[in-house]
Amino acid sequence: MTPEDTKELKELIEFLKENKIGEFDLERGDLKVRIKFAQEPGADLAQLAAALRAAQAANPAPAVLPEVFAAAHVAPSHVASTPAAAAGAPAAGDAGEDATLHVVKSPIVGTFYESPSPGAPAFVKIGDQVENGQILCIIEAMKLMNEIECDAAGEVVKRFVQSGQPVEYGQPLFAVRPR
Amino acid sequence: MTPEDTKELKELIEFLKENKIGEFDLERGDLKVRIKFAQEPGADLAQLAAALRAAQAANPAPAVLPEVFAAAHVAPSHVASTPAAAAGAPAAGDAGEDATLHVVKSPIVGTFYESPSPGAPAFVKIGDQVENGQILCIIEAMKLMNEIECDAAGEVVKRFVQSGQPVEYGQPLFAVRPR
Amino acid sequence: MFRKVLIANRGEIALRVICACKEMGIRTVAVYSEADRHSLHVRFADEAICIGPPRSAESYLNVPAVISAAEIADVDAIHPGYGLLSENANFAEVCRASNIKFIGPPPDVTRLMGEKEKARQAMKRAKVPILPGSEGVIQTEDEGLEWAKSVGYPVILKASAGGGGRGMRVIRSAQELPALFQAAHMEAANAFGNGDLYMEKFIEQPRHIEFQVLADQHGTVMSIGERECSIQRRHQKLIEEAPSLQVTPKLREEIGKTLKKSLENVGYQNAGTVEFLMDEDGKLYFIEMNTRIQVEHPVTEMVTGLDLVKAQLRIACGEKLASIVPEQPPIRGHAIECRINAEHPEKFTPSAGKITAFNVPGGNGVRVDTAQYAEGVVPPYYDSLIAKLIVHGKDREEAMARMRRALEMFIVQGIHTTIPLHQKIFEDEDFIAGKFDTKFMERFFEKQKKDS
Amino acid sequence: MFRKVLIANRGEIALRVICACKEMGIRTVAVYSEADRHSLHVRFADEAICIGPPRSAESYLNVPAVISAAEIADVDAIHPGYGLLSENANFAEVCRASNIKFIGPPPDVTRLMGEKEKARQAMKRAKVPILPGSEGVIQTEDEGLEWAKSVGYPVILKASAGGGGRGMRVIRSAQELPALFQAAHMEAANAFGNGDLYMEKFIEQPRHIEFQVLADQHGTVMSIGERECSIQRRHQKLIEEAPSLQVTPKLREEIGKTLKKSLENVGYQNAGTVEFLMDEDGKLYFIEMNTRIQVEHPVTEMVTGLDLVKAQLRIACGEKLASIVPEQPPIRGHAIECRINAEHPEKFTPSAGKITAFNVPGGNGVRVDTAQYAEGVVPPYYDSLIAKLIVHGKDREEAMARMRRALEMFIVQGIHTTIPLHQKIFEDEDFIAGKFDTKFMERFFEKQKKDS
Fold it and tell me: Bridge partners of C30?
């Protein structure tokens, strides 16, 4: 590591510590960072943790991965072509978004269509004002076209999927800024 | 990471904290971020215990053992007839004792004898003053009588084993209050 | 062979099917409810699709959701596992209509076997022994004496109009028949306003014995040995074995031939299990047929060396049985399975929650089928089966000894399991001696109560 | 049968022996160093005695400590496992003097087989084929030509006085012999001040093939099939299989007969393994004998259905082989074992530390022998083997497919393991085709380097 890297890393750690982060992973290109803070030596907590882990003092534990099936939290290869995180953990996936937005999720498994028929204009586009109950899109399942209604009123600010794309249950479709 | 990245990251963490997010995963293209906040220091034990056990309200969790092999920390059935804890984990077994005491441990596996021959007086008894190098007992191993010398000077305040009793490596034999 | 298969199930059987597919180079698609997001069948499938909320009715039993998932994932076939949609003929029909191969028998066969009385009659016509019952009402004591004589004592009288024990009498000899007939008649008349009675053969100590069959899509059926499943609690199997100590090679061959003929007649396809009761004289009576892979299929795999799930896939793909199982596999050694359920071992209350420690036993002759793991969660919505512990030994003694040591080494913490119950059963003298029937567990619990 | 047995070992083999004892109703005594206090062999033994500090020399290899533990625990016998004291004839003698049965051959046989050249001569006398070597110095080119002709090319010239490659030449034909003889002679003379040369048969692509034997204490020896162990890195086996694709039933029977005769001659007892090199023509040459249970014994168990550790215990107790293995067990299907080591999969640096996640694969045809667990610790003092993953299939193809899916489902975190290495080997074309020899791994690493 260059001294510059080290400095940045130190700053990052300081910042994480200030914000009481317990674990932190980052991967970007060939950069991988993994940080896990040790248990705070708060009296009772340390005692309980010790009892729970019965860790061996003689054998310092290596920097460990958080959990066996960390990978399992996101399905191995989602049919949806959106970022797996968005599909696999919709709530978390939207955390980066404005919390005031309302997310319309797919109530069924099927194929998403933005318009009533090929070539026809989309039911809604970004920037449209929509009403409660207004049709936002169609999800085709078993040859049936299911019209998906909006469950909020406001402005469509984002569409998460492409027309023709398969979606699973609970997958975010639109973000609406409620009025 | 670019300074821009760092700034974004900091903002994200601030935002997550404000919204009391516990864990956060994001995968988008080649970027992967994983953040897990530490337990609030001062969080009450019940909260941590709940997190650790993930007990479901509907099904009172059974009283869980702290670790898979809790039982392993003490050998299942020690040859020594002293409380297994004393033999299996000498350090722990002495925890209740005065920390200033010096514990003489068995350097070999064998059978403990307090005196040089049956009927003869014991090498030492409780209350005796002993010197460094003074013989405290005999451990018989493979028909050989091994004299065990004291590795401290002071008063013998406790004997942990009975004459004729088998002892394992590292098992506490005597406690000596050093002068 | 199929290119891609969707597994319409969860838990250990979903993972079992995924394993078979992986070994055959078939891509797998898992479906899951929101409660199973972190399950191993989701983790190890090539693709995974969330099909609904935790409740089975809205996810795993939701036919449109499953079919829709199969369509968007573009699979060739669906393996239904056991339970859930596995014996749903309508689902099999929808699969067919959607051009997706349902891995199981055709819908009409599933439907036939699903209607118990029709299945009984079909099997009776095909000369499979069924539990004898009088045809219609027994009008008089004499008629009763005659019918009872024809099937042998004991018999049981039942009220045509009712149930719940009213008007019911077990008759163990001709001497006691007249009085009991009158008593039952009176009781039925009083209880249901109708004194009509019918009679059935009564089995005092029935054993539950079932035969595994495989059938290809070209008209060939093969019976591949039996399983002994008498250790049950409230009709839930706890322990299964293969072979049964009660089934001689001769009986095995006879039943095998009869089943081959009868199931070829009904046009059976894929894997199935024919369940029988066995009376004290070792005679078998057909009860019902399960038209799917069974929870306890591994004991048959252990003693025959077959892979039944792979056989299912190959059959469904059109392969002939002659190439999958070229000859009747000999039975080697003895296998036993214990179902490890997330239940309190004495009260049997379900024990959902987070698993904090999970150490599975291994070593020679031990197989564990499970989708659980340390840090895994047992959701409260589904079946309580979390693992199947299967052992194989050169004989029943070795298998039992192996099971004892494997149970001891199977450590699960955070939830209750039936492991301690199994440990006690494997110390029971009658169990060890092989002296048991479907009422064994009742007697076992009484003994336990007395001892404590 | 023995009442109580001490296991003078650690890790998976200690647990393996404990499992066998448990299944036979024998009480077990574990011994352990301070580093292994929380190990599973300690957890699952009936008794456990700490015998010393972490270093093997002061604990597991400390004969007085082990014997003393055996005495205070009052055991009938000691099982030495593999490695450590298992081939230490002095230890076996001390056991005998202490009236404790050593589970293995008598000390003199262990000693004989431990001295490689004596063992070679003993086997040669008993007509076991050994790698041909000239008797004494080859004085002239003509003598060399003659000797080479008698064993066939290629041959190798070696310097009598030295080693390390100096004075060494592989000769592939009579034409090139004269020039190479002179060159080697000169080189040896220059390097060691002594130009004497001797000759050996040279095998270009040797396979490592070994035969498992069992011998009772009444003079009967039985060979129970071979294992193919050519996949090695620096003479450490990585993958073992049974049977070997190269060994025909005829060859198996021939070698079996020869070994039976020769080992009955030397008075062999208990389990043992006879190691051979196989040349390109399928001829076998004895290298050495291991007088103990082998790491890779499970592959033989999987294809024969025997329990070799139980057989060891029964033999040591005086039982006759005829009652333990009544007839030559047929070889069924194919088994493969992968050694899972706590090592970096590319650099092979040992990776001690705490295991944070440990999910072992299960299901049909998968066996795992391990003493590790989630939260377990791999101490830096001992062998890096943490688990053996063994699969069994109806043929080598099924076994390989099963191994691939089992490797994928074997999840170990917190330390590095060789799992990723095995995964790559199982994708290698030559490995899949069974085209390999003891130099396979060298070529494999070169290919890997080229590809990256």
Answer: C7, C48
